[in-house]
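#onboarding

Welcome to the new folks! Below is a worked example of what a typical request in this channel looks like: someone posts a single protein sequence, and someone else replies with the predicted structure as tokens. Don't worry about understanding the tokens yet, we'll cover that in week two.

Example request:
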Amino acid sequence: MNIRAKLLLDYYFGGFLHAILKLPTILLGKILRSDHDLKNCQEIAVLKLLGGGSLVIAYPALLALKRLPHIRRLKLITTPAIKPFGEVLGIFDEIIVIRDNGLVALAKDSAQAFRRLFACDAIIDLEIHSRLTTVFMLLTCARNRIGFFTNISFWRQHLNTHLLFCNVSNGIYSFYDQIAAIFGATSAAYEECRGSFRGQLGTYKFEGDRARLAIAPVCSGLSKERMLLPEEWIRILSERLLPRGDKANIEIHLLGGPADRPELEELKALIEASFPFLAGVWNYAGKTKLRESVQILDAMDEVLCIDSSLLHFSRLLGRRTTSYWGPTDPRTLARPNDNGMDEIHYVKISCSPCVHMSHQPPCKGNNICMRLAANPDASVLHNPAWLK
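Example response:
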């Protein structure tokens, strides 16, 4: 199933299930009168099906939960695409995978997950905008079901045992921190998170003493409007490379997933043609697994990226990071830190941010917000070359 089919299934089928399950859930809650004290929990499951970057943003809160003395197991319920993120973070004792490439596989894996999670102590739903994940938690009969509600998701009332308000115009990391707080924990500080994460990550060895620059120009299928044009990356590189005196001693490393390899090959060729003096340009898309990609990030002098999971890994590692934003707002996704290693490019326009605010971007792919992030000169709005 593609992203749009999943969203439609979630909205309509999830809404139908909410309607028929709400009244029985309310009645059973009044009859059973279960104990919902979170301090009695020994096993916690975290549900995250889309967007591995969200797990990285939530890492300080998840690490705090993992370190609570009474928590014996921390589990992750996820999809095959997000499983590598759970493995790289290294804090989950068990990862339960639900395939989402078809209805039969989805139903089969969900049934197996219900069996493994039946009557568990607590499930935390990190899918803020999903209806079906609320139903999934309910059908596990988990004693505690923790989720978020927004100004429009009133339908979650009475289906979860614990609901936290999420104002999507503010930092999502603050609301993830609330999860740790209701379990009696305090989210770990950035330096502490960095040390813990690096301790289990491993290293990637490069030979030679050269300046190394990574570019992470791609993102998941959810909101491709976050991406810049190849010629914009050349302009950005020009600003960083041409003034330097050690140009022949600079390496460029391109990072992405297997499906991104052809696109990054084109960018690689363009970089090599534009900057023939470079020591080398490498395309790792499809050649390295996620853990290796993150290890490569940790060996870089600087990382240039858009809003993607690799951006959040780079920030967690404390790398010097330059990021470009448009359909998403850095104020809501970039957890503040005091290491002074972030350079953020974002121009606030009337339709930004649109991700999670609209089922499809109002520009229909004509992401002027990213044009402005790469070049804040407002004249690009009136240049026909940018409005094709």
